[in-house]
Write a structure and sequence with these properties.
Oligomer: single chain
Number of domains: 1
Radius of gyration: 15 Å
Strand content: 15-25%
Number of strands: 5
Helix content: 40-55%
Structural class: alpha/beta
Amino acid sequence: MNESPGTRLVILGVAESDAHAVANHLIGMQLTEQGFVVVNLGVCTPLSEFADALDLHPRAEAVLIGSLNGHAYQDLRELPALRAAGRLARPVIVGGNISVGSRKSATDRERLLGLGVDHVLSDASQLVLLLDMLRAAKAAELQHG
């Protein structure tokens, strides 16, 4: 895996209770085509494994978690404890189907943000733009520091 200093790296996976692999692979391919190094943890990934991956790859820009079965909130309920322990100290971006049922509400999104998820995306095509914006914001913060 090429982790040279200029390389952009992300950690990608699917939430613990979710075995949907297709979107994960497509997003991984999209990011690779855009020049990212993708550490893809695959499906059914416990949140602690995302934290372990970030420990192994501290240059990662973000942790990207997909959820298509609608159980994102339950799968990410350990996020506050991990963050309190100093782990997962990168933007956590969740995308996919974030709640069970056909009706979606702002409450579902707010619950995830309340756990400490930094961004909730409903459209995977916006992912690279969001990563670029986060990178620019971090660079500006470091510059004005």
